[in-house]
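Inputs:
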Amino acid sequence: MTTAIAHSSQLAARNMRIVYRQPVYLAFTLIQPMVWLLLFSQLFERVVDLPGFGSTNYVAYLAPGVVIMTAMMNAGWAGTTLIEDMDRGVMDRYLASPVRRVAIINGILVYQAAVTVVQSLIVFAVALAMGARYDGGVTGPAVMLAAAVLLAVVFAALSCAAALTLRTQEALIGIFQFLAFPLLFLSSTLMADALLPGWIDTVARFNPVDWAVVASREALAAGADWGMVGGRIALLAALAVAMTWLATRAFRSYQHSI
Amino acid sequence: MSETTGLAIEATDLTKTYGKGAKGITALDGVSFTAPAGAVFAVLGPNGAGKSTAVKILTTLAAADAGRAVVAGIDVTADPAGVRHVIGHVPQKPCFDPTATGWENLSLQGRIHGMPAKTIKERSGELLERFGLAEAAGRITKTWSGGMQRKLDVALGLIHRPQVLFLDEPTTGLDPEARAGMWAEIAGLTSADGLTVLLTTHYLEEADQLAGRLAIVDRGTVVAAGTPDELKAALDGDTVQIELAEPAANGDARAVVEAVSGVRDVSVEGASLRARVGGGAAILPAVLGALDARSIGLASVTVARPSLDDVYLHHAGRSFRAADEAGTKEITA
């Protein structure tokens, strides 16, 4: 157990070093959320005027959604590290050494979680600068960060599992192109619950992106329904654990192929 | 090392097939060999012979379909984790992290092996010094030369003082100068650390130069094993190689040369004809006379002591180069 933790932190440190050496990479990952926050929010500014939208400021409504969306979109790329390691001999070197399989996955998940925290704080700060205000206390942003990190872990682990199974960048990119936008649109990320078509509202209940967005938005509001928030966070946590287990199992698929 | 046998590696009847049914490709078809402790053992074979597959099984990366493999006295199937502590593995593909410095690469590998920080520092310094990498050690490895990067790969495999080091095609892709440098390093490994080195290669001269013992692998089986000298001596006699002026005459030439008494194992490939002869100097005039009598033109004639190439030809029934090219085609197809 202690070995697994030690290996996880050592491999996470290796991944962090890449961002630390090339911080411009982090800047690139913020382009898309800034487009959503700065342009999309202006384009759809008056959507709040729709009867039943239930919010008066679209930036304030959209910001937690963009935080969550950014967490998901970037985590989807997490598996590319594994593919690079497999294309080189790095993975074979790890696997022929006493490193724990779960530590190789954890190293990526911890790194992805840290990147998500930084990205989320920047996106949220920009939203506040654009005039978004929330009535809840500091617990709100903290819950939002937790939801973003958990969702990032879910998608990063899924990306790792896909990377170990498919073993090509193209296949990995294809899968996430296929998943990301439907998951985004089949949720209340961009449009209030009450105004979603019935079938989307139903589907959204099973969508982890929606769990994270709904929990964040609720926690940021005054008089939050903490039971509901807790339930969504618990679902995300359970899914994160399941996906991490799946990714660790996927090493078997890779080892059968070599 | 196994206490009772003095063997660092024992592979017995290893088989491995990739894919299932008619599409399955048999990579290993009953490979057996043993490597004594404290020496360089080479697994020599053309591309696609199954060398890397054998290494993957011995280093616990892949599981054999059948057979038994024991490394440093530990069964790879029964205790893969135990094997991983006592081996170093340098894969065929570069295995250093190009985004990290030399120090950082070695430090992470040392920590994976649970070494204390102080020991890692000392051992890394020692390895960087030995491989002539000390000056570059603080630079990102992406900027290093190919030869330096490959030496770092080897250093990564040595950081924890393994008992057995696996080098999978350590010099493939290196320029001749870097290859010579790597050979010198490999030759020094066993004497300095009492290490056992298993090296796979498709370079005949690499096996000849470095290996105390070797196994020649072809199409998933071991066709010959022994010391390079034993293998060559077993061929008994010299090799005559004749380059014909006209490749089209190779059928005639073969018949003529085969008819000369004292000539064995005649083979032709394009314009080259090779034969084994009892005493090269004595029989050569008879061979040349016979070819001249039939007016078969020659471009060159050489007589040499047997090489590993001849050993391969004798056991595999085709020249090493032809097998290597065929294997490369299969891999890229």
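The first helix of chain B runs from residue 51 to 58. Flag for discussion at group meeting.
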